[in-house]
Amino acid sequence: MITLIIIQLILAILLVILVLLQGTDNEGLGLGGGGGIGGMMSARGSANLLSRLTALTATLFMVMSVILTIFASVGSEKNILESLPSINSEAESSEEPVIPENN
User: Tell me, what DSSP letter sits at residue 16?
Assistant: First the structure.
């Protein structure tokens, strides 16, 4: 379980970094020059790579979130709806609403 939480944390940090590296108008790495890393890729190729890496990381993050939620609910005997406080509709309907005084 701890390993899954560490993987989730790494994915969250990686997702933030990938989003921050992207430019506003798909201008490449968003680091000013707009070129690829060391001139190895064109601006369009690096933007495409960053977009794909961001989508992959976001997908993995969502999958890990669902997996962690399932693991957390397996050990619990209560349903999430059972843990909410009960609402008694009859008690609320019998009381009159209080109107505050204007000062």
Answer: H
Contact (Cβ atoms closer than 8 angstroms) between residue 43 and residue 35 = yes
CA 31, CA 27: separation in Å to the nearest integer? 9
Residue 103 has pLDDT above 70, yes or no: no
* H helix intervals, the chain: 2-21, 43-74, 89-94
| Whether the predicted pLDDT of 92 surpasses 50 | yes
Which position has the token pair 């108008």? 25
Q: Closest by alpha carbon to 61, among 14, 2, 3, 1?
A: 14
Exposed / middle / buried, residue 28 (Cβ in 10 Å: 0-12, 13-18, 19+): buried
Amino acid letter, residue 48: N
How far does CA 63 lie from the centroid of its chain? 11
Query: Is the model's pLDDT at 46 over the cut of 50?
Result: yes
Angle 13-17-18 from CA coordinates, rounded to 5°: 115
Tokens found for residue 84? 């909410």
